[in-house]
What we know:
Layout: H1 5-9, E1 18-23, E2 26-32, H2 33-70, H3 77-89, H4 96-110, H5 114-123, H6 128-135, H7 142-152, H8 156-164, H9 168-178, H10 182-189
Antiparallel strand pairs: 1-2
Amino acid sequence: MKQNNRSSRLQFDSYRSYIAISYEEMDVGFCTQEFAAKIVEALNEAESLREQNETLNKALQMVCTDLVKRSGGNANQVSKLMRKYLENAKRPEHGSRAIAFLLRERQRELDISNQEFARFCNSYRLSPKELIGIFNGKDVTDLQIQSIARILGKTAKELTEVRDGFSDNEMNSLARILGTSTEELAEMFD
């Protein structure tokens, strides 16, 4: 009988010391001291990140509450405003904002100023006016896609997919409207 790779990696070595892993007062497994230290480190880091996330969430809620109060709104608008800010803070996956993000990323890679980057883009036939328009959220045309592809070192097809694709939220909304799953909807667009 042939032994698979997985079972051979899980063999017990009687010459090493092992530490019991417990969960809710039950032993659930054993590991070496090195792995136990890594597990503890990962769990502590996860706890720290969770606490930081809670703090940032509270801070965002406080700021949004202040904004709503100052604008004369009501408390029901706070969560909507929070969702808006959280959505805007995420890296855009699709659309003109995603292309603008890729361009900013390229500028950081090149480590050049805004003015130098505008000249760099202009050398690839993307004028400073067009660049500013993209950063301000204007739609990216097919002609601009060609220039941007050369600037970013990507294919025009890749960038067209980025520009024309749907974000997860948009895909979920569209699937709900059409009464289908997001997987079925994604298959329709492939």
